[in-house]
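Readers outside the structure-tokenisation community will struggle with the description of the input data as it stands. Showing the layout once, in full, would remove most of the difficulty. For illustration, here is how one protein appears when written out as sequence plus structure tokens:
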Amino acid sequence: MVWADVPADKEGEFNRWYNEEHLAERLAIPGFLNGARYEAVKGGPKHLAVYELESPAVLESPAYKKVAGNPTPWTKRSGPQAVASTFIRNVYSMIHPRSVTPTVAESGMAPALQLGRMDVPAAVDAEWNQWYNTVYVPNYEKVPGVIRGRRYRAVDGTPTYLTFYEFEHPKVSESPEWNAQRNAVPASETMRKHMRHAQGSPGVYVKTYELKR
């Protein structure tokens, strides 16, 4: 997952670089399954790139290191490390559900996402994760317009946890049905108080570009 804020005068070239070169370059690497770009309509940072990998180990492969270690002239000129005012690159491993069906794996990237980036105190970590996986995400998955929810733990980057809701449209989390689930069970209000969100979290994003292998 890569987030970035880019100055307005750099955005046009940044978007062209991403769509015309960078995504294709990454998806040509073995182990990269899907890639899509999103823009924030709530929260931030504004620009988001989502890559689905076979595993985090793909980023340690010789094929990836060869490409990453030899950036193109366009990357040097217009990539986020050159032009972004905010640049976050995190690598995650899925913790809920433990696996996905072939149908889900082949479904492509959702039209909209809601992402929560957060930490919790170590003292409540186990209890909080149990609640999130068995109560909070399943309850939100009942809401019309929610395709599915997933949770991830960072293997590189901070904060520790990422909640990844896939939506049919970006207004899902503004609905009465969504809001009703916030405190649908007594534990939710208590557990939610432990969350320490990163700046711009939760963010809602709409898909702007997708490239499939």
